[in-house]
Structures are given as C-alpha cells and as structure tokens.
C-alpha cells in the first residue's frame, strides 16, 4: 500500500531539516525558547513577513497553533467564524471550541474561499445579550480544498473583516504553497491579518509550525495558553532551527513550488484519463471525482482520503518529495482500473 499521495504529512522530512537539527545539537542552550536559535528564527520570520513588531511562537503542530491563536483571542461568550470546510471546524476534534469556550460558526464558502459580505450578517447580530458575539474570523491559505486566495481577494477580505471590528486568523498550514503559487511576497499572501499559523511540517520539516502575532494586543495571554496546552517546547531550538533552515535561501518556497508543480502534473494526468477534477488545482492538492468502485479498487494500492463520505471525490496531496515516477505509477494504476 503506497502512502505517496495520502498527505504531505506522510512525506519524509527534507534532509535540510535533519541537518539543521544536527547543527544545533551542540552543547546546552537555554530552555523554553529563551535560546539564540529561537531568537534568530523569530527574527527570520518577522523579516520574511515584513512585520518587525510581530510576536513569534513555535508549536509542534498546526492544530496547536490554530487553537492557541483562537483561544487567546476570545472570551467564552464570543464567536469564531470560519468556512464550512475549515480544518478548525471539521478536523480538530472540537479543540478550538473546547479550549476557547467560544462558539464556532460556519460560513458558506466556495472550496474554503469566503465572500467577505458573508461576514455582515454575523456582525449585525452583535449587541443583544442572547447572541454569541463575533470576535475573530479564521480563513485558510491555501484552503482545505487546495484553493488559493489571490492577494487582492485576501486584502479585501481582511480589510472588510477589520471594518466590521473582527480580527483575522489565517490558518497557513500550507501557506508556503499559496505564496509559491501566487508568486507574490509572503506579506501580500496574508493581507493585514492579525495572526497567522505558518506551517512547517507539511512544507518538509520533521515537526513544527509557528504563529506570527502581528497585533499582540489582541491576544493577551497567548504565551500562557501555549504553555497550558503543552506546546511550549522545552528544547525549542530544534523547532526553531528548522524554520531558520527553511527560510534561508527560500527553501520553504522551493519545496512548495515543487509540490505545487507535481500536483499540477497529476491533475493534468487525471484529465488525460478522462477524469473530472472537482476543483481547480492551485496549490499542492488535487481533488478528483472517482466512482465508489474505482476508489475501492484504487484503495488496494493507494491510501487516499475522501473528505466527505457522501461526495465521490478523492484527495491526492503532493509534497516536496513527490517524484515524477510516483505520478506515473499512480496514473498507470488508475488507467488499469478505469
Ligand atoms: C488546513 C490545515 N490546518 C491545520 C492542520 C493541522 O496540522 P497538524 O496535523 O500539524 O495539527 C492541517 C493538517 O492537516 C490542515 O490541513
């Protein structure tokens, strides 16, 4: 059974991540992020995203980064808005609700892309004591369906949310793929968002995501929340060293560019086989329509994910390590099944 397209989490770690770990494994260093490597990595993130005043936190997982961001933004009587397919809504086991105490409300979306006017109705409910009070909206770049917010749409969305006095969180577990796809600066890919989860693991690291907090005044106590949920790494230098290595010489964008290109190649291959793509391939994920029998038989060879069991669409994810040979193999296997 091949896991080649199961997830970018199934990919191996990039050799640069392992080298980075080895390089900082030299003697003792201050614990809990008070070390020099962590300081340098935080500076590198601030520089990359052009926000010299941002606070930077590191976590082991993207779920933790999302939860820390949201739980430190809201009171239990407030409301978090997100798309109907948001990872925080459907794939974090209710963690954001449990740890923030706040209501999570789904907004209609097109593959995770939300029309800014969808926020208006919720903002208008503010005031009466009977309603949860909207405080923050979370969007995902690139989205759970592998779509990318174009820079102008991102700016428009974030600005509209701010006009409505909503904070904006960007779940950037695959932010590198979006930046690479857009060909814009990292800053442009996130607009003026307040807090950003910057993915590392899916991008090729062994482990580690980061939080870029651009408006720290809105996230009081964020470091306490990080500690409470067990994501203040005592040996943080090993997370930070990987970020340093990936931000250096734009390795994070090179790995993402490769993953995106492989996904484009895979999508084109599916279309040549006469299969229909469920949505455009814009980053490193491909969603293809497969009837139940073909999916079942493919499942004998490949572990692939069907996000919604009621919809005959299967997800293929490419990573920094996806080879042309792996793409040829899966296309040949499918050709034999169709
Ligand atoms: C969009 C998105 N956000 C967050 C996460 C969470 O990352 P982790 O598995 O590291 O907790 C994932 C993981 O698949 C994801 O796809």
Secondary structure: helix percent: 25-40%
* Total strands: 9
| Contiguous uncertain segments of 5+ residues | none
Q: The biggest beta sheet, please? A: 7 strands, mixed
Q: Would you identify the CATH architecture of the largest domain?
A: 3-Layer(aba) Sandwich
CATH superfamily of the largest domain: Type I PLP-dependent aspartate aminotransferase-like (Major domain)
By CATH, the topology of the largest domain is: Aspartate Aminotransferase, domain 2
Ligand inventory reads: pyridoxal-5'-phosphate
- Broad CATH class of the largest domain: Alpha Beta
Q: Can you count the helices?
A: 13
InterPro entries: ArAA_b-elim_lyase/Thr_aldolase, PyrdxlP-dep_Trfase, PyrdxlP-dep_Trfase_major, PyrdxlP-dep_Trfase_small
Protein name: Threonine aldolase
GO biological process, one term: amino acid metabolic process
Keywords: Pyridoxal phosphate
């Amino acid at each position: 059974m091949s896991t080649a397209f199961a997830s970018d989490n199934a990919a191996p770690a990039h050799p640069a991540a392992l080298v980075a770990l080895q390089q900082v494994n030299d003697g003792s260093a201050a614990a809990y992020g008070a070390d020099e490597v962590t300081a340098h990595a935080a500076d590198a993130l601030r520089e990359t995203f052009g926000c010299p005043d941002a606070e930077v936190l590191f976590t082991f997982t993207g779920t933790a980064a999302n939860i820390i961001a949201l739980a430190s933004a809201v009171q239990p009587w407030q409301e978090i808005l997100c798309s109907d397919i948001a990872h925080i809504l459907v794939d974090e086991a209710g963690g954001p609700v449990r740890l923030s105490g706040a209501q999570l409300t789904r907004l209609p979306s097109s593959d995770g892309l939300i029309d800014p006017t969808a926020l208006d109705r919720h903002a208008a409910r503010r005031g009466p004591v009977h309603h949860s009070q909207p405080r923050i909206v979370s969007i995902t770049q690139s989205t759970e369906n592998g779509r990318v917010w174009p820079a102008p749409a991102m700016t428009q969305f974030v600005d509209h949310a701010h006009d409505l006095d909503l904070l904006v969180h960007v779940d950037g577990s695959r932010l590198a793929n979006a930046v690479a796809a857009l060909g814009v600066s990292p800053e442009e890919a996130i607009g003026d968002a307040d807090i950003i989860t910057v993915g590392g693991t899916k991008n090729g690291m062994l482990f580690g995501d980061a939080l870029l907090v651009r408006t720290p005044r809105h996230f009081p106590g964020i470091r306490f929340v990080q500690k409470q949920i067990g994501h203040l790494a005592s040996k943080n230098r090993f997370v930070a060293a990987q970020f340093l290595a990936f931000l250096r010489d734009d390795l994070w964008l090179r790995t993402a560019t490769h993953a995106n290109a492989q996904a484009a190649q895979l999508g084109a291959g599916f279309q040549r086989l006469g299969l229909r793509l469920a949505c455009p391939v814009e980053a490193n994920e491909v969603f293809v329509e497969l009837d139940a029998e073909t999916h079942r038989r493919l499942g004998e060879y490949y572990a692939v994910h069907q996000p919604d069991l009621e919809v005959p669409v299967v997800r293929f994810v490419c990573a920094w390590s996806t080879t042309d040979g792996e793409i040829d193999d899966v296309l040949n296997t499918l050709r034999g099944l169709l």
